[in-house]
């Protein structure tokens, strides 16, 4: 082995490691991008009522024509319904949702809140 | 071409063929598709240093076509041809510049073989995400290139003494 061989091997390995590092970095950046794009989709009776970004804290009072309502709260990337006019209160008692595909349903008001895009839940992503 | 050179080239083709078969029988299973030791590259290296560029190139192509027809399929043959072609080009350039010893030339060949295969796979499968395999394949190509290079260096020095061709 000549000295040049060792230089060649070292250069190849350094370039490869650099490539790996930049790939890991880019992959991280791209997952952050998709997390930014996550939004909360609210549907009433199957029709879209509105969509709100998941990363923005807000409180939205969703009024229905017949006077019933749900109060949607987005806080720290988690969504919950804090108040509802319905009598069973299942949507209010539902645990807050965060991952893509999670949903809260309020059947009496025909309201469906889902999270679209963004972070997948790793725990049972295999079963999705 | 002298008769003994022709015979020697035939011998090397057969040897490369057999080594490819051995590699086909014992795939290096480390979870990365396409990762190979590149045993046949040993023969190409020996040919490159004893029989010259043209004959080594012939050997390389004949080997890939033979192995592709016998053990593989057309897709595998295209991947191998691209890998072998790029690898051979890199080895010839590496040898001509006289910067590297046998080991360095072999490392160049091993790395470029994997690069060539990935490039073709990217075109065939129309996906650029295969490039994520490349760092791993390059590391494997480097390691196997060192091993093959040291081995072929030993073989070349002995063969040159024996045959004087």
Structure description:
The complex is a heterodimer of chains A (128) and B (165). Chain A is α+β, with helices and mostly antiparallel strands. Chain A folds into 2 domains: 1-36; 38-127, mini-chromosome maintenance (MCM) complex, domain 2 (Sandwich), CATH 2.60.320.10. Chain A has helices at residues 3-36, 90-93; strands spanning 39-44, 47-53, 58-63, 69-75, 78-84, 103-106, 111-116. A 4-stranded antiparallel beta sheet of chain A has the order 2-1-7-6, with no helix packed on it. A 3-stranded antiparallel beta sheet of chain A has the order 3-4-5. Chain A starts with a helix and ends in a 12-residue tail after the last strand. The relative contact order of chain A is 0.16. The mean pLDDT of chain A is 82. In chain B, 39% of the residues are buried. Chain B is mostly helical. In chain B, helix 2 runs antiparallel to helix 3. Chain B has helices at 3-25, 39-50, 53-70, 74-96, 102-125, 134-163. Chain B has a single domain (3-163), classed as Arp2/3 complex 21 kDa subunit ARPC3. The interface between A and B is medium-sized, with 13 and 17 residues.
């Amino acid at each position: 082995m000549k000295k040049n061989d060792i230089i060649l091997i070292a250069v190849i390995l350094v370039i490869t490691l650099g490539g790996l590092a930049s790939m890991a970095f880019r992959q991280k950046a791209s997952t952050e991008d998709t997390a930014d794009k996550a939004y909360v989709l609210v549907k009433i009776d199957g029709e879209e009522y509105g969509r709100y970004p998941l990363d923005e804290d807000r409180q939205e009072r969703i009024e229905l024509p017949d006077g019933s309502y749900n109060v949607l709260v987005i806080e720290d990337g988690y969504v919950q319904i804090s108040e509802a006019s319905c009598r069973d209160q299942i949507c209010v008692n539902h645990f807050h949702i965060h991952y893509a595909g999670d949903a809260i349903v309020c059947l009496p008001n025909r309201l469906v809140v889902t999270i679209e895009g963004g972070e997948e839940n790793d725990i049972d992503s295999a079963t999705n | 071409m002298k008769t003994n050179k022709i015979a020697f080239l035939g011998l090397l083709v057969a040897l490369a063929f057999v080594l490819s078969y051995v590699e086909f029988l014992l795939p290096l299973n480390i979870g990365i598709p396409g990762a190979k030791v590149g045993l046949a590259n040993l023969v190409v290296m020996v040919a490159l240093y004893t029989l010259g560029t043209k004959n080594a190139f012939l050997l390389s192509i004949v080997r890939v076509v033979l192995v592709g027809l016998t053990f593989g399929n057309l897709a595998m043959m295209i991947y191998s041809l691209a890998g072998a072609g790029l690898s051979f080009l890199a080895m010839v350039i590496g040898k001509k510049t006289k910067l590297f010893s046998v080991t360095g030339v072999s490392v160049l060949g091993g790395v470029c073989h994997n690069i060539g295969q990935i490039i073709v796979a990217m075109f065939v499968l129309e996906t650029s995400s295969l490039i994520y395999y490349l760092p791993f394949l390059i590391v494997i190509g480097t390691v196997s290139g060192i091993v093959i290079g040291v081995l072929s260096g030993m073989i070349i020095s002995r063969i040159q003494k024996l045959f004087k061709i």
